[in-house]
Amino acid sequence: MSLDGTQPVQKAPHRSYPLRVHIATLFTLLILLTGLSICWYAYWQNQKLALQLAQARFSDTARETAASLEGLHRPTEALVNMLAALGKLSDSDTLPERLDGLGLLSEALRSNPQLVSLYAGYSDGDFFLLRRLADVAARERFAAPREAAFLVQSVERAGAEQIEGRYLFLSDDLRILSDEARPDYRFDPRGRPWYQLARSQSGLVRTEPYAFFTTGEVGLTFARRSDNGRVIVAADLTLSRLSAELARASPTPSAELALVDARQRVLAYRDPARLLRPESGQGAASRLSRLQELPAPVLRGLAAQLGKPQAQAGQYRAAGGRDWLYSLQPLAAQGAQRSTLMLAVPLDELFAEARRVRDRTVLATLLILALSLPLTWWLSHSIGERLRALSDEAKRIQRFQFDGEEPPPSPVHEVDMLGQAIGRLKRTIQRFLDISQSLAEETQFDRLLDRVLLETIGATGAEGGAIYLLDEASQTLKPAAMRWQDAALGVAELQPIALDAVSNPLAMAVRERTTELLALSAPREPSLAYVDAHFGLQPVLMIAPPLANRSGELVGVLCLFLPGDSDHISPARAAFVEALSDSAAVAIENQRLLQGQKDLLEAFIKLIAGAIDAKSPYTGGHCQRVPELTKALAEAAHRAEDGPFKDYRLSASEREALHIACWLHDCGKVTTPEFVVDKATKLETLYDRIHEVRMRFEVLKRDAEIAYWRELAQGGDALALAQRCQHEQAQLDEEFAFVAQCNLGGEQMSAEQLVRLGQIAQRQWLRTLDDRLGVSWEEAQRMAAQPAPELPVLEPLLADKPAHRIARKPHEQMPADNPWGFKLSQPEYKFDRGELHNLSVRRGTLSEEDRYLINDHIVQTIIMLSRLPFPKHLQRVPEIAGGHHEKMDGGGYPKRLTRAQMSVEARMMAIADIFEALTAVDRPYKQGKRLSEAVAIMARMRDDAHIDAELFALFLRSGVHLDYARRFLRPEQIDAVDIEAYLTEGRA
Description:
The chain is of the alpha+beta class. It folds into 5 domains: about 65-350, 2-Layer Sandwich (Beta-Lactamase), CATH 3.30.450.20; about 385-425, Orthogonal Bundle (Helicase, Ruva Protein, domain 3), CATH 1.10.8; about 440-600, 2-Layer Sandwich (Beta-Lactamase), CATH 3.30.450; about 615-670 and about 870-980, Hypothetical protein af1432 (Orthogonal Bundle), CATH 1.10.3210.10; about 690-835, no CATH class. It contains 30 helices and 28 strands. Strands 1, 2, 3, 4, 5, 6, 7, 8 and 9 form a 9-stranded antiparallel β-sheet that branches. Strands 17, 18, 19, 20, 21, 22, 23 and 24 form an 8-stranded antiparallel β-sheet that branches. A hairpin with a 4-residue loop joins β17 and β18 (about 475-485). α17 packs antiparallel against α30 and α27 packs across α28 (about 930-945). The longest helix is centred in the first third of the chain and has 67 residues, at about 20-85.
């Protein structure tokens, strides 16, 4: 804003263009203008010529069509006049007499292919016809012999009822091949239009074109009465040649040509199949198509212009929007009816050649332009090449493109200096970006430090260098990496440097945050004694830029050592080193943060696994041993050089995913109730309910003793009562011992034992106290579903009460279409604590509901891991961790995956999980299997398609089982295993 408060007027930006653009634009416009002018003129002239040629073609076609009509009519008229004058047909009364004239008739048919037949109709109703059978179709139509060339159709009438019809098939030399009587052939010529027309006139008559009944061709009939008046001689002439000529005369593929009469009936058309249409009515003959029935919109649109005596021509746009050039040429052949030849050609096809010439002209213009532009461009380019090169180089640097060549030298000093400055700028930025990218790509902290040294030494030309990292606890700089020339050296023997060391130049440089060169003269500080090993007593220059994080806090220091006789580092080089040290500091801090997050994640993972193992003595150190075994098997597959795993290789990211999946493979166990995991007896929940059952037996025993004393007091037999009391109590003791044994679940229960258990359960005991007092509100709510019985009440000794069944809450239901793909058979109840129900478990201590809860840990594992925001390279963790209870045959859980649907790592973990469980020695409910026993069990599982056969073979051949046994099994568990006996399926 100006001093007076007004807004200054902004000038429009000045636009400038290179000289080569001006020259190239001028030449381009000139060539294009010339070429397009020539193109337009040629196209206009070609269109005009095409129109003239088309009109001439239309006139020629009309003349040729008229000449064809004359050529068809005149010979036929002459022939009919001659036959009417001769007595061969008019004077004959019988068939043999009429056959004498076959020579003349057959020769006439041979000489004129358009003649279909010659015939004579007599006043008494007789009929004689000679037809030429020109092709196979004609012979098949009349069922003629194969050699037949002519057909004689004869009708002789001896009276009203005596009619003799005959077909005579003749060879080409007029031999009779077949003489067939045709009683059904009763044709009477006297009723035909041609007969009646010729009868009424003295001269030659001609019918209107019509469709021949016998052959279906379009033609017309010529007829004349004989001189004696008793016979009408006629000839059928087909017009098929006209359609063929129209088809040949079509100037373009889509041109429409048709010959129509005054009644707009189509006499000839380029497509002869369109000439006829069937008449309406059953058995009716075909008729000529009308103009409006042709599939030619342009001809139908021109129908309104027919009927004018003079020729018409012009352009017409049809219904589909296509433009046509048309011509209507009236034809008046001598003696023939007036007809019109309609011709229409689409303009796009008519002008196709003109367009091709136009396109070639445009192409030639563009070709000339393409050939001339390089020359023009080269001339203009050479003028401003040097400045353009510098401009382009600056633009490439702006786009961070550093792969171009150096700008060419210039005789202008200022331009040459600018080019050199741009070259140095490009190299500096490219070097800085390359180093930054290489540091960002490094993921291992130790390699990152060495990479920082390597890149920095190479960029500065130093002899060597070292990196010290700050230990905040001790406030010292500890050596972390050292490199001299092309070799990385160890730092174990290097001494740390205290930050407050007064005489140490490195500590002083860090305190002052300086990047200036420092001279290190001999003898040097003990902490820098390693410099003497490379430089001896020579003077040394050191530059030590501090490494600071984003917050400006000290992270460490980068030391670079140069010979003392080196030229001083330029300010530009010093600024580059400082910028590079900042980038290195950020990379180091990022790696430290990333490693810290990984360490924290690892600690949480092991914390969860340790908590699961500590939660129940039944799991022991399972979560800590399975990772060791799984990773050992994975490494064996990684090292395999032959067999099914020769191409299996683990990347660092895949190893990390496998490591996490192994440690978290049972994390879902945190949701499993401890009393279910630790269920040692069938009646155990949070406590063992066998004590309740024992108290009921105690009550029954007391009831037996009370009954003894009561009946004894009433005068009963003391001996008998005592014996009965002792018997009942002994029986109760024995039944309780049986129930207690069933509660242990040590052996599979037989059907007889289940029956006996049911009989014992039917015993009744008397309850006199309300069982709804002192219970939790949730249990009281379940018991309220049933009405309370009136006390005292008899109850079964072992009961399955409704209150024992705990329903599954809605959010605990697992629908069949769950998003995780679980395929589970979910029990109706979450818990069924019925006493008889649990005691009737055939094997083990777990009921169906308990077993589901145990297996649910893998379901919860998958759900929990699926909800974690794993990065891309760890997204397979849920699949690997959640597949170790699947079986190769699809019979596992929770997804019933087959081998093909499981990853190799998930199949590895399945083997590790089973082997660890079989051999574990820290489970209080069992002893660990010996090595041979565990391998034999797993071999049977392989044969049953429970574990992967190829991985099991690798597990044995690689010795993973032995390595694990030496680390985690007791010496007495490690026995000899003949692995060859288990390497083939079916030999377990």
